[in-house]
Specification:
It holds the Pfam family Methyltransf_7. By secondary structure, the protein is an alpha/beta fold. The chain has helices spanning 2-9, 12-15, 35-55, 76-81, 147-171, 195-212, 218-222, 233-243, 267-286, 291-305; strands spanning 22-28, 63-70, 90-95, 108-114, 172-184, 246-255, 317-325. The radius of gyration is 21 Å and the shape is globular.
Length: 326
């Protein structure tokens, strides 16, 4: 879908003039690889194909610069050590939140973000305030079933998307593309009904177990919330159109067909996968000393209940978008 979008939507004549043959790509929320390397390689190959289709054998060779962006806490050492040795681009790391400016004005030709934009810049303050009607007691995420909680999370998401789009609009050249793949929910279905929602329920139940054992205080357990929000495609479309700085070139909902592919996974591999995405949050909120206890509890419960989140709810949905800078 990315290759097709670049072939059909990218104006190489406008983006690459005779005096400017360096093509710059940024991956927002790169993590530590290898997924980001595959994505960047695909984009570069598609751009080269488009460039040669426009100019044939007389096409000037493009040079590519790829910027890998993620939070300051990201393990950039691991990322750089894993860089493909024969990569056809110059690589650089850009640490910092993508909810703000990261690059000079009109310097990026293609922006890319995969499985990152559903992460909020912060947990809404109301959901951890016991005096607020949006207090999210008993849950660690926005289930979508509690009106005030959902309002708080959606408000934070709206602010974050506006900030993200405004920053990218300054950084992308006119006509540049922004590719976004992110988690979402089908219109009219709450996150709690989906497979990923069932997983968060299971994850949260481990906090309850540790609280009962006296390893975590109730106050800390009740104030632990994941800074995540999964919008519907309709909701996201409205926010992008309201911002007005990008045209939506394509927008698709992709259903993750995971039920048939997931028997009970290998516990060690499964725990490693879960730790990669959540250990930092647990350390930050609950303390380093509780991490091993938490994942021991998770592993034991995972085996005892034979929990497979893919089989316990509606299929997960991904939202895929190609935006063009106006």
């Amino acid at each position: 879908m990315i290759i097709q979008a670049i072939a059909n939507k990218l104006d190489m004549e406008k983006l690459c003039t005779d005096s400017y043959k360096t093509f710059q790509i940024a991956d927002f929320g790169c993590s530590i690889g290898p997924n980001t390397f595959f994505s960047m390689q695909n984009i570069i190959e598609a751009v080269e194909q488009r460039h040669h289709a426009d100019h044939g054998n007389s096409a000037t060779t493009l040079e590519f610069q790829v910027f890998f962006n993620d939070h300051l806490s990201n393990d950039f050492n691991t990322l750089f050590q894993a860089l493909p040795p024969s990569r056809p681009y110059f690589a650089a790391g850009v640490p910092g939140s993508f909810y703000g400016r990261l690059f000079p004005t009109s310097s990026i030709h293609i922006g890319h973000s995969s499985s990152a934009l559903q992460w909020l810049s912060k947990v809404p303050e109301e959901v951890v305030d016991s005096s607020s009607p949006a207090w999210n007691k008993g849950s660690i995420y926005c289930t979508g079933t509690e009106k005030e909680v959902a309002k708080a999370f959606s408000g934070q998401f709206e602010n974050d998307v506006e900030t993200f789009l405004n920053a990218r609009a300054e950084e992308l050249v006119g006509g540049g593309l922004m590719v976004i793949l992110m988690g979402g929910v089908p219109d009219g279905i709450s996150l709690s009904q989906t497979s990923i929602g069932k997983f968060y329920d299971f994850f949260g139940s481990c906090l309850v177990d540790l609280t009962k054992k006296g390893l975590i205080s109730e106050e800390k357990a009740n104030s632990f919330n994941l800074p995540l929000y999964f919008p519907s495609a309709k909701e996201l479309k409205t926010l992008i159109e309201r911002n007005g700085r990008f045209s939506i070139e394509s927008m698709d909902e992709i259903v993750e067909q995971v039920k048939s592919a997931h028997a009970l996974p290998n516990t060690q591999n499964h725990i490693s996968h879960i730790r990669a995405g959540t250990e930092g949050l647990i350390k930050l909120h609950l303390g380093t000393e509780i991490v091993e206890d938490f994942f021991e509890c998770y592993a034991k419960k995972h085996v005892e209940t034979r929990f497979v989140f893919a089989e316990n709810g509606a299929d997960n949905t991904l939202i895929f978008m190609i935006l063009k800078r106006k």
